[in-house]
Amino acid sequence: MLQVLRDSMKYLAWILWVVIGVFVLFVFVDFGRGSNYASGSPTAAAATVGGQPITRMEYEREKQRLDDQMRQQLGQQYNEELLKQLRLPQQALNRLVSNKILLAEASDLDLGVSDRELRRYIVNLPVFRDNEGNFIGAERYALAVRRLGHTTDSFEQAIRDQLMLQRLVSALERSVVVSDKDVEDRYREQVEKAKVRYVALPFAAGQAAVSDADLQRFFGQHREQYRVPEQRIADYLLVDQTKLEQALAPSDAEQRDYYAQHQEEYGQPEQVRARHVLVKTAAEAAAAKQRLDGGEDFAKVAREMSTDTSNAATGGDLGWFGRGRMVRPFEEAAFGAAIGQVVGPVQTQFGYHLIQVQEKRAAMTAPFAEVQQAVRTRLAAERAAQQAEEKAKTLAAEVAKAGANARQEMQELSTQPGMELGKTEAFGRQGVVAPLGSAPALNAAAFGLQKGGVSAPLRTPRGWVVLHLSEVKPPRVPDLAEVREAVRRDAEQDVQRQQTLARLAEARTKAGAGATFDAVAAQLGVGVQESPEFGRGGVVPGLGYAPELVKAAMEQPVGTVGGPVSVAGSALLYQVASRAGVDPLQFAQQKDSLRQQLEQEQINALFTSLINQRRQQLGVTYDPKLLEELGMAGAPPPA
Q1: Fewest CB atoms within 10 A around its CB: which of 169, 274, 276, 631?
Q2: d(CA 65, CA 88)
Q3: What confidence tens digit (pLDDT) does each residue in 259-271 have?
């Protein structure tokens, strides 16, 4: 179930239709519930998209809406453990980022909503109409909006945004075309099944002999597969955040002041140290309880009876743990027990537990002396991050102002503390930019520059960077000398493949035209295997991706012997063992639903492609403190 829920959370259409189709329900809820703005003001940026902020307040509201939806959908099945596994906070943040990206696209496509259209939409919302169907008036409207936690400006902007998204969805929907053949192909993918019997020979092992002439010929026939895409090389000026941190030395007073302002972050929750005996049945639990009640050592009983192999040898010791670490029934029993008391049996999905609490720690704030080093490190990191960003903005302005002398200006600026001047290796639109690391916004910025152009400040794993595009390397087919070893490996593998295919073809010829499939297998000295049933998707269980084999099996009569074909490093002869075909009546019944399914998939693909492309162009940054709260320090939430 968990995987299904995760998939649904990532399903782009689900996100869009919930956000757009039920937006009115989202707006008219109680936003008076407490929110946690742990990293600062509710107006602080949780993330930015193309320079446009997503505030912590927006993030908290979206997270609450997702939580409410899942509680309504799952009812009693929804619990804190499932909440953690679904990663709703990350999903909420990514939903907001996607919406910002889509709004930028809608704006570029001139899908804006006029003031007149906005007013017409709002005055027709049922919540703003009285019992006689008339608009409630400007004063009552403003009061209603304030009660929702909005200003009229913020409320109307939210409505405007949603109407723009609706227009974008409609525009993309109109571009989707699903033909009758597409529908039939999808039906065939779902219902047509086949099995094959086969014999397989791995491609000939050993070093295949490939002459220079063979190498030249192979390269000439396959030149395009070695094509190098467009690449770029840039000078960079790096504000190294690590070096800035090392140069900072917050005073003892500053550290104590920071600690006082962030004490809640150094809190240690209530904890217990416990051990347990885990058994599978109630009868075993009763037997273990009887031994403990009789005075036997708890550790001895755990070693002899517990099925928890991770700690049975150590007497069932679970160490220290806080709330939320164990399943709910176990947690409630452990935290409710007195020290030394044996409680249980407690039933969970793992079996029956007998629990003994050995020690307890009350909730407390860690003393300053214990966390001083962490405070010093964090304070220095925060100051260094702020200094690095401010410094990078100044540097970018100075380098851009230098025009044709940008490289020389970068050289002069690099003498300042914490600076590093360098040149990247050639890089493409995606992937790591050596030596700066993985930062998609960096690739996108570089490919948005003309030669000699200077980028805005960009955040990378190593700090803030300003790029000066020094070289554009157009797509090209390299000379053989540049890729000789790769070509040699491919040519050798091709020779091995051809030799193995030839061996199978020879065995089939020697067995004779009327020979059975088993006779051909005997000629090869190889056993016959049978595949599980497979469909038109191109994958055969046990063999892997085999489109040629699947296509043949779906088109040839049962009993047909075919091959040889290449499949995943082997050559195969096969015989069609069984086939399940189409049902015209069933197809007619499912045709409309299949068409809708295909249309929705195409819309999803359009949105996915659009968001990924625009994400690269606009650049997305996240509040480091928020990522730390989400347990994702140093990396953005998953898309």
Answers
A1: 631
A2: 10
A3: 777 776 676 778 8
CA distance 202 to 218: 22
Complete edge-to-edge strand list for the sheet that includes strand 52-55:
52-55, 45-49, 620-622
Nearest to 248 by CA among 240, 236, 237, 238: 240
Residue 440 and residue 447: Cα distance in Å, rounded? 11
Distance CA 118, CA 159 (A): 8
Q: Are 606 and 109 in contact (CB under 8 A)?
A: no
Largest CA distance in the chain: 94
Q: Is 83 helix (H, G, I), strand (E, B) or coil?
A: helix
Rounded mean pLDDT, 584-591: 88
Q: Which domains does the chain have, with CATH numbers?
A: 2-176+603-629 (1.10.4030), 193-204+489-580 (3.10.50), 231-251+372-473 (3.10.50), 270-362 (3.10.50.40)
Which of left, alpha, beta for 525 (phi over 0: left; psi -120 to 50: alpha)?
Answer: left
**pLDDT band with cut points at 50, 70 and 90 for residue 21:** very low
In angstroms, the CA 296 to CA 304 distance is 12
What does the alpha-carbon distance between residue 405 and residue 321 come to, in Å, rounded to a whole number?
60
Count the neighbouring beta carbons within 10 Å of the beta carbon of residue 153: 9
**520: its two tokens:** 């051909």
Peptide bond into 584 cis (omega under 30): no
Q: How far apart are CA 87 and CA 9, in angstroms?
A: 9
The torsion defined by the Cα of 448, 450, 452 and 458, in degrees rounded to 10, comes to -10
pLDDT tens, residue by residue, 346-391: 888 888 999 999 988 887 777 777 777 777 877 887 788 888 888 8
Q: Is the pTM of this model over 0.70?
A: no
Number of other CB atoms surrounding residue 296 within 10 Å: 13
Q: What is the mean pLDDT of residues 307-318?
A: 83
Q: What is the pLDDT of residue 56?
A: 81
> Three-state SS string across 381-404, please?
HHHHHHHHHHHHHHHHHHHHHHHH
Q: Quick one: 36 exposed, middle or buried, by C-beta within 10 A (0-12, 13-18, 19+)?
A: exposed
